[in-house]
Design a protein that fits this description.
Layout: H1 2-10, E1 15-19, E2 22-31, E3 35-40, H2 47-63, H3 70-74, E4 85-89, E5 93-97, H4 103-112
Antiparallel strand pairs: 1-2, 1-5, 2-3, 3-4
């Protein structure tokens, strides 16, 4: 865990997650009541992919409000990392460090908004 602490301080957009006995680092793509999807850093093939992944993660972290998933904010440039996207059942998944990005919350917030218009009597 000591090694993870240094990495998480240096890259705040990474989340430390656990599924079963396995711990891994990554960027959470979507977290709902039933499933969690995460781009797993540990699965990346080469140093170039790892560096590109960290660069995109940093761009997402500092250039957005962090409510939208990284793949939507970065766009086609992030598509090359789709091979490291993993989906887990939430019952077996735990976020040890990091923020859960959830599209579900955005949809709920939009539905709750109301528009009030004042009309002046003549």
């Amino acid at each position: 865990m000591a090694n993870h602490t240094e990495i998480l301080e240096k890259f705040p957009f990474l989340s430390l997650c656990k599924s079963g006995e396995d711990e891994f680092l990554g960027i959470i793509q979507n977290y709902t009541n039933t499933i969690a999807s995460i781009y797993v850093y540990n699965v990346l093939n080469c140093i170039e992919d790892k560096q590109g992944f960290l660069d995109c993660g940093e761009e997402w972290w500092w250039g957005s409000n962090r409510l939208l998933p990284v793949n939507l904010v970065i766009g086609p440039k992030f598509k090359q990392f789709s091979y490291c996207l993993r989906t887990y059942n939430v019952k077996d998944f735990e976020i040890l460090h990091g923020i859960p990005v959830s599209l579900q919350n955005i949809i709920t917030k939009r539905i709750k908004r109301r528009q009030i218009q004042l009309v002046q009597k003549l």
